[in-house]
Amino acid sequence: MQRITVAKGDGIGPEIMDATLAIIKAAGAQIEIDEIEVGEKVYLAGNTSGISRESWDTIRKNKVFLKAPITTPQGGGYKSLNVTTRKFLGLYANIRPCASLHPFVKTKHPLMDIVIVRENEEDLYAGIEHQQTDEVVQCLKLISRPGCEKIVRYAFEYAKQYGRKKVTCFTKDNIMKQTDGLFHEVFNEIAVEYPDIENEHWIIDIGAAKMADTPEAFDVIVMPNLYGDVLSDVAAQIAGSVGLAGSANIGEECAMFEAIHGSAPRRAGQNMANPSGLLQGAIQMLTHIGQVKVAEKVQNAWLKTIEDGIHTYDIYKEGVSTQKVGTKEFAEAVISNLGQSPTQLKAVHYSDEKTLNLPKYQRKAPKKKDLVGVDLFVHWAGTDVEHFASLVKQIELPGVKLSMITNRGIKVYPDGFPETFCTDHWRCRFKPTDGEILSKAQIIQLLQHAEEKGIDAVKTENLYHFDGKAAYSLGQGQ
Ligand code: NAD
Predict the structure, then answer these.
(1) Both 204 and 316 in a single domain?
(2) Minimal-distance CA residue to ligand 1 atom 40
(3) Are 415 and 355 in contact (CB under 8 A)?
(4) Residues 144 and 268 in one domain
C-alpha cells in the first residue's frame, strides 16, 4: 500500500481527479490518499505560493504527489506552484509521453510515439539574470555534471523499463561547446552502459525540424531544460492530443504527476472535461511506485475506450466517435474495459522490473585546475574600438597583457571589422604573456587599475585549464 498526496485543484480539477481516482482504484491500485488544498483558494487567502506549510509537510512525507490543474489568479505577486514544487523538491526529470491515437484522434502523424525527457532544474531556468550595462542584460546558462548524469541516466532507464529501442539527445553543442558540450559528452558516456538501446545525437535545430516533420523517427528524446520545455509542447500538440497528455516530474526523493493542460475554468462543474490527461499522469505514477501491472491494465482499458469511440466533447468527431460522454461516463467506460486491450491501437506491456536503477551521483576526483587568464567585462558607450583598446591597455600589468576584445562574443580587437555592430558591453581578455599561470592577486590588481582609470568593470570571469585543457570559449573569429 502506498500513501500518496492528492490535490484536486481548481476549475475542472475536482471532476477529473475523482474520475481518475475511481479508475485506478477499480483497477486495483494499492493507494491511500492524503488530500491537500492547493491553488486559487490558498492564493486568495493571502498565501502567494498557493500552498500551506502543512501541505508541504504532507507532500514531503508521502513523496508521491498527484496534482490536478490549478488556477493561478490574475495579477502580479502569485508564484507558479508548479515551478516552486519542481525547485523545492528537486524534481529534476520531466517525462512527457506523446503518442498519437490515430485514427481515433486527428493527427498528421499517425505513427508518432515519443517520450520527451526534459531536464527540469537547471540550464537558463536557474533564473540568474543581471543587467550589466545600459544596453545589455544576461541570463546565466548553468549546466552541471550531476544534472546531466541524472537526466541522461533517467532517459536510458526509462527506455529500458518501457521496452523502448532508442534514446536520442538534442543539443546545440556546435555553438555552446561548454554547456551543451557537457550534456552531449555525458550522454555519450552513459549510452555505453546500455548496449541494447540504440543512441544518437542531433543538433537541436535540425532535430526539432525532423521531430515536427517525422516524429516516428524518434523514440525517447532527452534534452536540456529550455529545449525540452519548447519541444515537449510541440510534441504534445502534433500528436494531436494536448488535452490527453500527462507528465511526471521526478526527483531523487519525491515525484509529482499531473495533466499538462490547465484548469479550464469555463468547463468547470459541468461534467464535460476529459480526464485523460490526468489519468495519463496517474498511470505514470503507478509505474513509478512499482504498481506496473495496474498501470498497464489502466492504460490498455483507456486505449480500448478511445478506440471504442467513447469520447468527451473535446475529441468527439462525427463519423469517428460513437458516443459523446461526460467526465463520469467516460470514467465508467474505462472501468468497464479494465482487463481488456485495444485491437487497433497498440496495447502496452510494461516491464515487471519494479524500480529504475538510478544510483546516487558520485562526485568524480577533482581535475587539475589552472588559472590562465581573465575576461574583464566593461561598460563603455563609445564606438572607436582602437581608442577603447588603448584605454584598456592602460590597466595591463607587467607580464599580463590584453589579448583580445569581443563585443557580444565577436572579436573586435585586434583585427576587427568596422562593419561589426557593437553595443556598450565589452569583454577584455587578459593573459599572462609567457603563457604561465595568472594569480587572483593579479586579477585584483587589474580591477584596481580599472577603478583608478575610470574603466567601468561590470564583472570578471576566470579562464581555467582543467587537466591542461582550455575550458572557456574563444572569441568568435579568433
Ligand atoms: P487550459 O488548459 O485550462 O484550457 C485551454 C483550453 O483547453 C480551454 O478551451 C479548455 O476548455 C480546454 N481544455 C483544457 N483541458 C481540458 C480537458 N481536460 N477537457 C476538455 N477540455 C479541456 O488553459 P488556460 O485556459 O490557458 O488556463 C486556465 C487556468 O489554468 C489558468 O489559471 C492557468 O494559470 C492554469 N494552468 C494551470 C496548469 C497547471 O496547474 N499545471 C497548467 C496550465 C494552465
Answers:
(1) yes
(2) 69
(3) no
(4) yes
Ligand 1 atom, smallest distance to 267 CA: 11
Q: Where are the beta strands (DSSP E) in 68-194?
A: 93-99, 113-119, 129-131, 137-139, 166-171
Containing structural domain, residue 196? 2-336
pLDDT value of position 389:
97
d(CA 183, CA 185): 6
Q: Whose CA is nearest to atom 24 of ligand 1?
A: 262
Residue at a domain's end among 284, 311, 336: 336
Whole-number Å distance, alpha carbon 17 to ligand 1 midpoint, is 14
Q: 476 CA distance to ligand 1 centroid (A)? A: 44
- Same domain flag for 313 and 378: no
Secondary structure element (H or E) that encloses residue 404, with its range: strand 400-407
Put simply, whether the predicted model's pTM sits higher than 0.85 gets the answer yes
Which residue's CA is minimally distant from atom 6 of ligand 1? Answer: 264
**Please, what are the averages of pLDDT over each run of 10 residues along the chain (478 residues)?**
96 98 98 96 89 94 96 81 86 95 93 96 90 97 97 96 94 96 98 98 98 97 96 92 89 95 94 97 95 96 97 92 97 98 93 77 95 98 96 96 96 92 97 91 97 97 96 83
Query: Do residues 309 and 452 share a domain?
Result: no
Structural domains of the chain, count: 2
- CA-nearest residue, atom 30 of ligand 1: 262
* Per-residue confidence (pLDDT) for residue 380, from 0 to 100: 98
Residue 474 confidence (pLDDT): 85
Distance 250 CA to ligand 1 centre (A): 22
The H or E element spanning position 410 is strand 410-413
Q: Which residues line ligand 1 (CB under 6 A)?
A: 12, 16, 69-72, 82, 243, 258, 261-267, 273-274, 277, 314
Question: Which atom belonging to ligand 1 lies closest to the Cα atom of 70?
Answer: 40
The helix-helix angle for 225-238 and 204-213 (nearest 10°) equals 10
